[in-house]
UniProtKB/TrEMBL annotation:
Domain PepSY: 29-101
Protein name: PepSY domain-containing protein
Species of the source: Oceanobacillus locisalsi
A Pfam family: PepSY
InterPro entries: PepSY
Length: 104
């Protein structure tokens, strides 16, 4: 094989690998909408919710020495006549709720 063919084959292989990796990464990420719906379902197990929100841009979260790419959001629940707000963090890769906390 000539050097040109080897270089062309290598360049083509790298390009195909890059495109394939990008496609896999884009398909495995959870959308913010799905993350919000999953979190709402988790909160609904404890009672009705009256409002919800989510940031569309992922951010990094460190918990227990591990770094996660997460969506941050929140829900509002009416408990005993007063609104209580809770924040949550959802893993962008799996859709799992990483952490929840009462909003201050």
């Amino acid at each position: 094989m000539s050097k040109k063919k080897v270089l062309l084959a290598a360049a083509l292989g790298i390009a195909v690998g890059y495109i394939a990796r990008e496609q896999v990464n884009n398909q495995t990420k959870v959308t913010p909408e799905k993350a919000l719906n999953h979190a709402k379902e988790m909160f609904k197990r404890q009672g009705p919710i009256s409002g919800s929100w989510i940031y569309m841009k992922p951010e990094e979260l460190e918990r227990n020495g591990l770094l996660y790419d997460v969506y941050r959001g929140g829900v509002t629940r009416n408990i005993d006549g007063s609104n209580k707000q809770y924040d949550f963090y959802v893993d962008t890769a799996t859709g799992a709720v990483i952490d929840t906390e009462a909003a201050v």
